[in-house]
Amino acid sequence: MKKIQISPSILSADFSQLGAEIKRLEAGGADMIHVDVMDGHFVPNLTIGPPVIKALKKNCSIKFDVHLMISPVHKYIEAYSDAGADIITIHPEATENLQASISKIKELKKKVGISLNPETKVDVINDYLNQVDLILIMSVNPGFGGQKFMPEVLDKIKELKKIQKEQNIDFDIEIDGGINFENSKIAIEAGANILVSGTTIFKSNNGDIKRNIDLLKSK
Ligand code: DX5
Ligand code: ZN
C-alpha cells in the first residue's frame, strides 16, 4: 500500500495571512498544499489566481497541488505552471480537448491530475489513465469547502484500483471534499492515498494542524 499523504486545502485558511498559514501547514507535517482555483463559471465561487500562487510559492518549498476548477482551462495551464504549481489537476468537462490539455501539462514538466465530479463516471477518462499521475475523486460537488462527504463516490476509487491491477498501471488516487476523522478510514480502505482536507485540518481541535494531520493519517 502507498504511504498516505495529506494535502490541506488553503480554502479554509485565514486569507489575511496565507503565507503564515502555509508555514503552519509545513510545520504540521502536510505533504503538499492543495490550492483550490475557482472561476465563478465552472463552479459558483471565485478564489485565487496565478499571482497569488506565485507569491506564496516564493516563500516555501512544499509541493503545490493545484486543483483548477476553471473553464475553459486549457489557455490558463501555462500561467499556473509558471506560478509554481507542481501538480496541475483539471476536470474533463472544463476542456475542449482533454488529450491536448494533458499533453500541455506534461510538456511543462508538471504532474498531471484529472478530477472526477461526483456524477462523472470513470469511463470518461478510461483512455487517459495510462498518462496521468493522479486521479482526484470529488466527494462533494466542487465550489465550496465545508460540505458533506458523499460516500457513494468510493465505488469509483475501488473501480480505479481494479483497473490499476488489471492494466498494471500506477497513479495516485486523491479524494477531495468533506473528509473528516470518521470517513478518512473508509476513503483509505477504498484505495485513496492522498486526502485533501480544509475544514477538518483548520477547524478541528481548535486548529491544531499537526494533530489533525496526524489523526487523518492514522485513521
Ligand atoms: C471543493 C474543493 C475542496 C474543498 C475541501 O470545491 O475542491 O478542496 O475545499 O474542503 P473541505 O475539507 O472543507 O470539504
Ligand atoms: Zn480541491
Describe the structure.
The chain is α/β, with parallel strands linked by helices and 219 residues long. It has eight helices and eight strands. The protein has one domain (5-217): TIM Barrel (Alpha-Beta Barrel). 33% of the residues lie in helices and 18% in strands. It is globular. The protein starts with a strand and ends with a helix. The model has no long low-confidence stretch (mean pLDDT 98). Bound molecules: D-xylitol-5-phosphate and zinc ion.
List the helices and strands and how they pair.
Elements: E1 5-8, H1 18-27, E2 33-38, H2 50-58, E3 64-69, H3 77-83, E4 87-90, H4 98-107, E5 111-116, E6 134-138, H5 154-167, E7 172-176, H6 184-190, E8 194-197, H7 199-203, H8 209-218
Parallel strand pairs: 1-8, 2-3, 3-4, 4-5, 5-6, 6-7, 7-8
This protein binds D-xylitol-5-phosphate and zinc ion (ZN).
Which keywords apply here?
18% strand, alpha/beta, 219 residues, binds zinc ion, TIM Barrel, globular, binds D-xylitol-5-phosphate, 8 helices
Percentage of residues in helical conformation: 25-40%
Count of DSSP-assigned helices: 8
Percent in strands? 15-25%
Return the CATH class: Alpha Beta
Low-pLDDT runs of 5+ residues are none
Count of distinct strands = 8
